[in-house]
Amino acid sequence: MNRLLILGALLLVGAAPAKKPPTPTDIVNAAPAGAWRTIPADDLMVMDLKSGGRVVIQLAPRFAPVHVANIKALARGNYWDGATIYRVQDNYVAQWGLNESDKPWPAGVTPKPPAEYTRPLKGLLITPLGHDDSYAPRAGFADGWPIAYSPKAGWANLAHCYGAVGVGRDLSPDTGTGGELYAAIAPLRHLDRNIAVVGRVIDGIANLSSLPRGTEALGFYKDKSLYVPIARIRLASGMPEGDRPAYEYLDTRSESFRAYLRVRANRKDDFYIRPAGGVDLCNVNVPVRKKP
Amino acid sequence: MNRLLILGALLLVGAAPAKKPPTPTDIVNAAPAGAWRTIPADDLMVMDLKSGGRVVIQLAPRFAPVHVANIKALARGNYWDGATIYRVQDNYVAQWGLNESDKPWPAGVTPKPPAEYTRPLKGLLITPLGHDDSYAPRAGFADGWPIAYSPKAGWANLAHCYGAVGVGRDLSPDTGTGGELYAAIAPLRHLDRNIAVVGRVIDGIANLSSLPRGTEALGFYKDKSLYVPIARIRLASGMPEGDRPAYEYLDTRSESFRAYLRVRANRKDDFYIRPAGGVDLCNVNVPVRKKP
């Protein structure tokens, strides 16, 4: 192991000489300050595990407004204090939360939200992926989010990429209230337009993806002794200003993002011999970072 | 949590009434014995971790013959006794092994194998995916493997889907010898045709995917105390007959597989409202099971 294997060396080549073809990371590092957009503190949900791990979720009020309003009401009401992660299914999801039979809803929760599985395409400023998508007529990016859409039918949906956060529900027409959430620990595009996606994990997903898998059907933990305790879930806007985490994403309408997208589809740095000439929506990974 | 959330309930509906649209699992359960193909014991590599976990890998000699011959020679020579998993990068790979500077190669190892990144398309009996692929002109299945291919250029490659096992290497033109291997714990299709894929994990991948992530660049563990010790890696053909695990896969040319593929792209069971009408190659998951 004393030979450094450079599989995936994109993270190491920031200092590569200027003549070499840029890596995606080179492009992100060179993006001007004006190409970054701050995520509002009221759209950041911070889950602290009792183990000390932290998971930060960006909420998407423009895509699932009623569900996101519910989730914000639950976070503001400290609803999830003492909740647990009770399901981790390999190559699928990590799921946590409480529901009304565990604890009554606080004020401001809509018990039966509408099926916010898509939203109107109109009003979104889209950067097209530029490659085919298996799950929708088109794929692309809007406001920093990976989305799928139909220009003809006029809908758009947040894509179930790695890290997507969705609302657990029973069989349709139930849509889930928002008290029980999951994070996709694999791309799950077949769930697109069948579940309310309310956000994505932007930091700390390894605190979910590396948890032991549940051994019961669908990855539920066998008994309560295995549940992973959550210390608290809060909105960043409800935390003392000095403690608030702050993040920004690369504007998906910026020249930097467009260059990043081209290079993601055409890797030519030293490790690669044959660029693909294409890329899956979920393999693009919109750059998100802590605010410097 | 006393409400059973059925997200991903495909595993539970084997007993659904006959009138309902079948789930993928229904089709697999109904496949006749003749639709299953036994995996040869000489193509099964069994990695036992000191923790007790087992990871079973199916090797693909038809796709990377020299690399697979190396790997078999290393396994037969007990080369990896005392090796470790030393790198786990989130949403990327788990990597293990030794190289020649750790321990001399046993007899039968080709130190500089050719770049077995593709093989001739000719000779493969292919079931097409039937949907677009972002990384190659075509995608489909051959001998139970997910593959990408070009009918025009005449090549085919094993696709980097979840569980794919590839050969760690330095910058090209190095191709890696086979002493250091990784398992993809995410789909990594951008690596297709840039690395020798030698097989896939068919059982126990959660023993890799749930390991703690390394905190160094590229997910390397910070120090040796964190390395995950491997007890031994053997071929099933080298194990006493009574101890050998045995697996079979659903013949990708069978009617059952074709029906399974159609349903994977068009989920209509109770949970789903809008079938996608398409599916990614890596979201099909060729059924593999322990031999009954």
Structural overview:
The structure is a homodimer. Chain A has about 290 residues and is α+β, with helices and mostly antiparallel strands. Chain A has helices at about 25-30, 65-75, 205-210, 255-265, and strands at about 35-40, 45-50, 55-60, 85-90, 95, 120, 125-130, 140, 145-150, 155-160, 165, 180-185, 195-205, 230-235, 245-250, 290. In chain A, the strands form three sheets. An eight-stranded antiparallel β-barrel of chain A has the order 2-3-13-11-12-5-4-14. In chain A, strands 6-10-9-8-7 form a five-stranded antiparallel sheet, with no helix packed on it. In chain A, helix 1 packs antiparallel against helix 4. The longest helix of chain A has 12 residues, at about 65-75. The relative contact order of chain A is 0.23. The model of chain A is unreliable at about 1-20 (pLDDT under 50). Chains A and B meet through strand 4 and strand 5 of A and strand 4 and strand 5 of B.
Instruction: Identify the biggest protein-protein contact and residues per side.
Output: A-B, 73 and 73 residues
The percent of residues in helical segments of chain A reads: 10-25%
Proportion of beta-strand residues of chain A = 25-35%
Major sheet characteristics of chain A: 8 strands, antiparallel, barrel
Q: How many β-strand stretches of chain A?
A: 16
Low-confidence stretches of chain A: 1-18
Order of helices and strands of chain A: HEEEHEEEEEEEEEEHEEHE
Q: Rounded to an integer, what's the Rg of chain A over CA atoms?
A: 20 Å
Mean pLDDT of chain A: 92
Report the principal-axis shape of chain A: globular
Determine the structural class of chain A based on helices, strands and strand pairing.
Answer: alpha+beta
Distance between the termini of chain A: 34 Å
Q: What spatial order of strands do you see in the largest sheet of chain A?
A: 2-3-13-11-12-5-4-14
The oligomeric state of the chains shown is: homodimer
Helical segment tally of chain A?
A: 4
